[in-house]
Every structure is written in structure tokens, then in C-alpha cells.
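Appendix B, example 12.
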Amino acid sequence: MHMKNKFLFTVACFAAISLTFAQVAHPWQMFHHDAQHAGYANVTGPQTATLKWSYNLGAVGMEGGNSVAVSRTGTIYVAGPNKITALDRNGNFKWSKPYQNAQGPCISNSGTRIYIVSNRNIVSLDTMGNQVWSYMAGDTMIFGGTLSANDSVFYVGCWDKYIYAINTWNGTLKWRYLTFGSVSYPPTIATDGSIVVGGGDAHRASDSTVYALNPNGTLKWRYFTNAISGAHCGSPAIGPDGMIYEPAQPTLYVFDNNGGLSWSDGSFASEISGIISPAISPDTTIYIGSNQGKVFAINGTTHATKWTYQTGPDPMQTNFYGVISFPVVDRWGTVYVGAVDHKIYALDKNGNLKWSYTTGGRISEASPAFDSDGTLYITSADGYLYAFFDTLTLGINSPEQIENSITVFPNPNNGVFTVSATKISSNEKIEIYNSLGEIIQSENITLENTSIDISGEAAGIYFYRVISNGVMIATGKLITE
């Protein structure tokens, strides 16, 4: 192979392993944003409870589903109890197709295929909703699955206790892996390419195990948690530090890529986590909800709780609380989360309420989602899809992101590289992490071009983040050879 082509091929291979905060092809590609499921989007969410439009999906219920995906062409795919529906950004109907208990629309990188689950079936559709192929699994699937970085494999958990890997070009089985219990929540792709899955389901066979599988379907590692309430785990989220954040009531567990437990928080006496996947912002603040109806913001570096917010009780059940939806977070650290009290909440980075909006039912578990302009989409057990957007959002951007362009070069390199910043603040630094999420070097950036030397470290993949006045303004990957 020609040397230049070999170099480009190598870079392309490394690029296929996406980071949590790398830009994806679509505003909201799949469950909890992308294959790392961290629920973060680099947009400014709605500042007020301004309803742009709502759409009646035609069926109530499915508080555990009604997930949304948004393509780069502006098509909104929303799944529900009896069909999948496609809308434009103005809430106008495009098409729908009947699929019972449809869940988990997942858009291919190319945008030409949509993958859903429908009871026992994994289904591939084209952009007009025409079925391309269908694969029947051994039992029900309820949240959908996750695409590999190169679109070639669709991973999904099933109530028959298997994790399935399906070839996307023809809908055939690549492999399946048998767990100890029914699997409900989508697998997550870690920074090293392994497939990480939380085991068990509250309504079927229990399993409090976290599994990490190699791309060929063999077990890489597993970890047994103390999960209660049916003994099951949710989908993990991958942080900007490359760590794996696993919710397993009552505890949040944090692992490195080799399955080593870095830290955990929450106990039977003091619950931190339910089984809802956390949202993680670029400064590694973790936003997670509990079955007691509390939202927690946890500092990912010190592990200290920054703040808590108590949501309300279900109006239909006395003294019943719970954070039911997967929280999402925008570039300002505003977290949007739904609860059993039928409300969607917008909380600022200090835990103060910006706004709330009451729907006619519990907020759906797989909700909400962001569009590229910051529009927030939520679904509710009342059968509606809601779109929130206000003019205050227009033109709001982080000053650091506008004025400070960060470039790291050369990349790949021999361990010595340059950080170029077009605007230097009085308090700017770069942190370098290894694949275990450990900081190996931290340097202040005082010049427009600052030289960094990590040549004393082993060759491999490293991660960096640039912080300006306490705000994360850039993150990325380094390759040393």
C-alpha cells in the first residue's frame, strides 16, 4: 500500500472509534444521542417553556419508550405503541408504518437506513419507511439497539437473555452472547470499541451484571453490582475521560476499559442512582436521577455531589416519586429531565429551576432529545410528541467556543505536539488522559502555540480536553506512534 494511503487508512480506522463528544452525523442519532449514550449535545437548549408545536402520535401509554431520533436532513423519527412516525421539523406528518411496540429508532451514519425493534423483530427501514429486512429474535426487545461506528453491525439486548449482533447489510446474525438475565437497555460502545451492556430487566429475568464484549462477541470482562429493585442495570454512558458510567440502583459505578472499578457512589441507605443512564457534560459533571425523584449533579473529578433537585410525586399515586426519563444536557450545563409527576424540568448548572412544563402523563423513559438548533423533543404517556424552542435560544453560543479555536498538530505524532489557540485567556490549560481516564499531564496554555511533550509515555491513544476559565472548550483524541 502506498505510504500516504496507508497513513489515511490508519487515521480512518482510529476515527471509527468515536469519542463521547465527537460530532456525529445527525443531531440525535439514536438512544441518548449516540453510541456512547452520554446524552450531551453541543447546542443551547430552550431557555423557557415555550412550546413550538405538539403532535398526537395516536396512542397513549408506553412511558418506557417513545424514543426519538433526528436526522441531519431534519426528519424526526419517533417510535410508539403501534407504529413508527416520521415528521419534519415543523411537526408536519411525512409518513408512518405500523409496527407493534416500535422502539429505538437509530439512524445510520449515511442517513439511508433506520433501525427499530418491534416486539421480537429487529427491522431495517429506508427513509420512506419501506422495510429492507427483518430479523426475529427469541423474545421481546423494548428499547432498541446501537450501531457500530462503521454502520456494519447493530447490537441489541433481548428478553431471551441474549445480546445480538446483526449484520446491517443483510439482516443476518453475526453472533449472540448469552447473559444471566433478560436485557432491556441498549448496548454502549466504549472508546476501545468494546460493547458494554447492563444486564437484567425489572419485569423479566433479573441480572445485576455489567458485561463488556469484544467486537467478535467474546467476553472481555464482567462485573457483578449490588443492584436492587429487580436486580438490573441500565445502559452505561461513556464520559469525556473515556470512563464507563454504569447506573445500577442504588449505585453509580465507574469503570475503566478493562473493567477495573475506579469509584462508585450511592448505597442502600443513600440512593444516588436508579437504572436511568446518566448525562455527562464536557467538564465531566454527571447528571443522574433516582427512584426517590431526585436529580443529582456529581463532580466527575472529585466525586462530590454538586447539587440535588427534588421532583414531585405522581398525581395519580400518593407519595410515589421517581426520575423516569434519561436526562440530557446542553453546552451550558442545563439539564433537561422528566419525572413521574408528568413534568419536564430544565435545571441550570447550579441546580436552579429554569422552567418546567406539565404534560398529560409521565414523561417517556427514552425521552428527551435535542435538534441541531437546540429544539427539545419530549414524548409523554399522554401520546404526544412535544417540541420546545424559543427565540432566546437564537444566537446564544459560548463566548469561549466562538472566540477560541483550538487545533492540535501534528496528530498522529511522536509524543511531541503543538496546541494552537487563536485567543488566549488568563486561565487556560490542557489536560492529557490515558485510556484508563487518568491525567498524565496538565499544562497551562500561555502562548498561541504551546508545545507539549508526552514522549515519555508509551505509544498509543490518548485523550485531551482544553479548559478555559473553568469551562470545557475542546476535547479530542491524540495518537502517538
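The chain has two helices and 39 strands. Residues 1-24, 397-404 have pLDDT under 50 and may be disordered.
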